[in-house]
Design a protein that fits this description.
Blueprint: E1 2-9, H1 16-26, E2 30-38, H2 48-56, E3 59-68, E4 79-87, E5 90-100, E6 113-122, E7 125-133, H3 144-158, E8 163-168, H4 176-182, E9 186-187, E10 202-204, E11 207-209, E12 217-221, E13 226-232, E14 243-248
Parallel strand pairs: 1-2, 7-8
Antiparallel strand pairs: 1-14, 2-4, 3-4, 5-6, 6-7, 8-12, 9-12, 10-11, 13-14
Length: 250
């Protein structure tokens, strides 16, 4: 059984119609996204997850993560960023769990980081699809919050099987967090030296970047999967490049 998986941090400013162009062109079986919005004026305050699912005729599940209000948004706006999973297959169960909560971490006052989980059925096989967007630290340094988040993910992986895990790690390769994930799951490529960020100028918390020279996005899977192919897709949409992976499981 072969399946195609698309991982993409879609950027909260990107128009939903542009995202659909890529999704329809590559026609993946499973799509995992970060920064899907609800209530943002960049997308006419639409429920972007619902819009994409309806346009693709896919099932979906979203995990409400960040909640942005003034001063991070205009005074008249409250919007949410979600982690979302879309699939043409039946979702048998779905839930999320917190990686970080603002009350637990004063260094991240506006963030609620979550892992979205959708258990899907393909014929007689059940897959555990998971996606997450880890906390931000300046220049993508690996602080204790990130290590704590990874420990929660690893504990979940140890209790489940047939896992496909995608994420915007907000960390570059070679970090402790990636090595922790690799102890349970296999990297589905492309090679870590291929960048996925940034295609747009970035400026936040005193850090600026204007070049596509960092790898922040990854796809992992249980070791019983075979990686058939993988590629980083070139596009002008979003500030991250999507990753397309084809996997096989017997």
């Amino acid at each position: 059984m072969k399946i195609k998986v698309l991982q993409w941090n879609v950027w909260f400013r990107e128009r939903a119609e542009n995202l659909l162009q890529i999704m329809k062109k590559y026609d993946p079986d499973i799509i995992c996204c970060q920064e899907i919005t609800l209530g943002s004026w960049f997308n006419d305050k639409r429920d972007v997850a619902k819009f994409i699912a309806q346009e693709l005729w896919y099932n979906y599940f979203y995990s409400k993560a960040h909640k942005y209000e003034y001063p991070f948004t205009p005074k008249w706006e409250t919007n949410f960023w979600w982690n979302a999973i879309f699939t043409r297959f039946q979702i048998k169960d779905s839930f999320d769990f917190a990686l970080i909560n603002p009350d637990d971490s004063p260094d991240h006052p506006y963030e609620r980081r979550t892992c979205a989980v959708a258990k899907i059925q393909i014929w007689k096989t059940f897959l555990t699809i998971t996606t997450a967007h880890k906390s931000y630290s300046s220049r993508f340094s690996e602080d204790q919050d990130k290590i704590d988040e990874t420990e929660k993910l690893v504990n979940f992986f140890k209790k489940n099987e047939n896992i496909i895990f995608t994420w915007d790690l907000n960390l570059t390769p070679g970090t402790k967090s990636i090595k922790m994930i690799e102890s349970e799951l296999q990297n589905c490529w492309p090679d870590y030296n291929q960048p996925t960020w940034t295609t747009k100028p970035f400026s936040f918390m005193g850090f600026e970047e204007n070049e596509l020279n960092r790898r922040l996005d990854y796809v992992f899977a249980s070791k019983n999967f075979k990686v058939i192919s993988s590629e980083i897709i070139s596009t002008d949409f979003s500030d991250h490049l999507p990753i397309l992976v084809e996997l096989e499981i017997e």
